[in-house]
Amino acid sequence: MGQNKATTRDADRRDWLQLFNGKDLTGWDIKITGQPLNDNYKNTFRVEDGILRIVYDQYQSFDGKYGHLYYNKPFSHYIIRFTYRFVGNQTPGGAAWNVRNSGVMIHSQSAKSLSMKQDFPVSLEIQLLGGLSKGERHTANLCTPGTQVYMNGKLNPAHCIDSRSKTYDGDQWVTAEAIVLGDSVIHHLVEGDTVLTYQRPEVSSYFVSNDYNWQAAGVDNANEWISRANKPLVDGYIALQAESHPIDFRTVEVLNLKGCMDPKALNYKSYYVKADNTQCRYGTK
Asked: Domain for residue 3, yes or no?
């Protein structure tokens, strides 16, 4: 006999969406500085042995080819979880600060909306840093190209904000997460520990600084973004960064926290925090 609502087991079961299917780049868009949309310049993004890899073995020099791989669906309230590792040496021509440096962008503009010569999307970057075998080097930090956030009730104007994570040296796998609740609060986690929390993500009036401004970043429609300054970032795309040091991703998955919150519906989930009852399905299974 059919049932007309979700069972408790169904409602509690977490339905993680695998953004990376383990086989190819289906569902992702590529944008590399100076290259057309979906031009995978020198095979930078690829899948090998079930791993999503960002590699530079066909480059003579990095030559400012900052790239990002964008999942083609936006999210607003969700958990993103991914496992990554840095490998090998940095590509010749990469900036000194990009050694074992990459990132995962959240609340990002779409791949197709970037200007041809734009280096980075307007987004919140979960900055990933690998240890350099000496001293501390935290990971899952926050960097803010074209954006700004509040911490402890005050605007934090810093472009990059350090987390409280441990240092991860070598080529070891590390699992990081972000709990993203629209334009209210975002938490960064590393290996299950909360390492950074901030609130009220917004568009900024400047890209990074007076020197690295919208024009320097290659943004053609700067006035459009400036007109949105101080307005909330409610949702956006997820993108994996290519910043001159090879990095691998073993998994990239999302738990959507927005959906049907009517307990009478078949697709009700107990863990949703934001209602979108236009998604509700009723009737029998």
From this structure: no
Q: Output the domain CATH number for residue 194.
A: 2.60.120.560
Name the residue among 54, 37, 22 with its Cα closest to residue 242: 54
Q: How far apart are CA 187 and CA 165, in angstroms?
A: 13
pTM (2 d.p.): 0.96
Query: What is the C-alpha separation between 124 and 130, in angstroms, rounded?
Result: 19
Total domain count, the chain: 1
The answer to the question of residue 25 being in a domain is yes
Give the model's pLDDT for residue 285: 58
Strands 147-151 and 154-156 turn out to be antiparallel
Separation CA 92–CA 60 (nearest Å): 7
Q: Give the count of alpha carbons within 13 A of 45, CB side only.
A: 25
Q: For residue range 139-176, what is the model confidence (pLDDT) as tens digits?
A: 999 999 999 999 999 999 999 999 999 999 999 999 99
Domain assignment present for residue 1? The answer is: no
Residue range 209-224, pLDDT digits in tens? 988 999 999 999 999 9
55, 229 Cβ separation under 8 angstroms: no
3 state DSSP class of 60: coil
Let me know if residue 79 belongs to a domain: yes
Enclosing domain of residue 69: 8-279
Phi/psi of residue 11, each to 5°? Answer: -65, -30
Token pair listed for 266: 């078949």
Q: How many CA atoms lie within 13 A of 249 on its CB side?
A: 28
What separation in angstroms does the CA of 205 have from each of 69, 96, 101, 182? 25, 27, 26, 20
